[in-house]
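Two records follow; treat each independently.
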Amino acid sequence: MKTVQAMLAEAEAEVPRISPDEAKGLLGRVDVLFLDVREPAEVATSGKVPGALAVPRGLVEFRADPGSAMHDAAFDRAKTVIAYCASGGRSALVGKTLKEMGYTNVRNLGGFKGWLDAGGEVEKG
């Protein structure tokens, strides 16, 4: 049986981090998907990365799977996916899941606070 700490350690080992400064340079590119996996109330309160797709952690698999009735066309295995949450845990787990689903270029931005601290732009949620 795995603990959440073990699951996070595995995810962190498999999904490379991307710095906020590096990620800022990718904003607006059509081959990049910024993925906000926080809950809707979190996004509504603090906003999100401009253009980010907001999908709560519990729905990512359904939205990312082209065979799902809930699939979102913004998910494309050819794109770089940059996932983030509040502190980096959920986005690490999402990144690992997306890799298991065939998404090969996945990065973990970590927490939204790091984005804000680096002077990242914010769009209302």
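The next record belongs to a different protein.
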Amino acid sequence: MPEFMKFDHTRFFDLYRKEYGKLTQAKVSGVENLLIYIERDLEVNDARWAAYMMATVKHECADAFLPIDEFGKGAGKPYGKKVRAACADGKEYFNAYYGRGYVQLTWQNNYRKLSKALDLGDSLVCHPERAKEPEIAYNIMSYGMRKGSFTGKKLSDYIHGDVCDYKNARRIINKLDRWEVIKDYAEKFESFFTLSRIS
């Protein structure tokens, strides 16, 4: 039966600082939030999954560990244009569905799909900025990476049992773009999680 993972947060931060140096208070808060969400997530009970998720956030959010808007907000890209959204509240919205959150969710259909999957109704379609709320951003990342919502590839395709392919796990988000950097982050986060795990 799956069990929640628990970590010694002080130990985790000590290991992180030893590897990457001083953290700003904003980064401390961001990492702390992610640790709490991971500990509450019964579907994430492999430290390597947690490590790859943290590595993805470190890369996709420019080392901020906070949900962000895509740089340029989709300017010049098809998904950066405002499109109509009819919502259950009877109002009509015109939103641009550029990358937001921890994993840079894009396109209206993906906002709609994740909104439904997370029991948020049409909230993410009508109010796409909600994808940057930390807990929602985490749930988008966790569900999407576990279920293959972004590219059809999922965590269990690359990390299971004795298999741990951090290189090809990048396909979960974005083909093999910058896989070397993210693999290095993931290996370090795996060490941090392993050494700080208490249950």
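Discussion point: The chain has nine helices and six strands. How would you locate this feature using only the token line?
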